[in-house]
Task: structure prediction
Amino acid sequence: MEAICGDYLEGSTPAAKCVAAARPRSATPEKDYVLGTHDEEIARLGLQHHAWRSHVLAAWDWAGIGPSQTVLDIGCGPGYASLDLAQVVGPSGRVVAIDKSGKFLEALDGMRLQRGLDNIATYKADLDAGDSLPGIADSAWCRWVLAFVKNPRDVLAQPAAALRPGGVVVLHEYFDYSTWRTAPRRAEVEEFVTAVMAS
Result:
C-alpha cells in the first residue's frame, strides 16, 4: 500500500508521510463514518480512489466536466477526488468539497496546501441532517454517499437545486451489497455484507 498511496499522493513520498500531511490540526468532535475517520482510513480511501481513478476521470470527461467550471464534490471524504477535480477545472475553476467530517476536511486542507492548490474550498455540512449546499455550480460529483444516508432522495435533490440550467450530476454508487463476493468464500466478508445491509 505504501508504494501506491505514495505514488498517487506525492510522487515518491511514502504513504506514512502522506497520512501525516493529512493529519488534522485539531481534534474535532464529529459524527463518525461506519469505518471511521482515523489516519488508516484516510490512507485506505486514498488507495481506493487510486483503484477507481481511471473510471472517475472517464465519467467526468463523459459528463463534460472541464476547465473554468465550479464543481461540488458531495461527500468528499478526505478529498482525493477533490484534488483531481481541481486539476480538471484548472486555476480558473473552483471545487467546493463538502463533507460532514471535520477531520476529513482538515486532511483535504492539508493536502491542498501541500500541493499549492487554491481552487478548492471546503464546506462542512451533513446533507442527511438537512444542511444545505453552498452557492450555484456547473456540475456535482457524488461517490458512495447515497447508499449510506437515511434519505437519499432528499440528499440528491440538493445538488439538483444547486446546479445552473444544463448542469450535470455524476454519481458512483453502491447499489446491491448482496453481490459482494470473494473467491474463495470468506465468512468474514459475508458477515460484513450482512451487517452493512442490516444497517
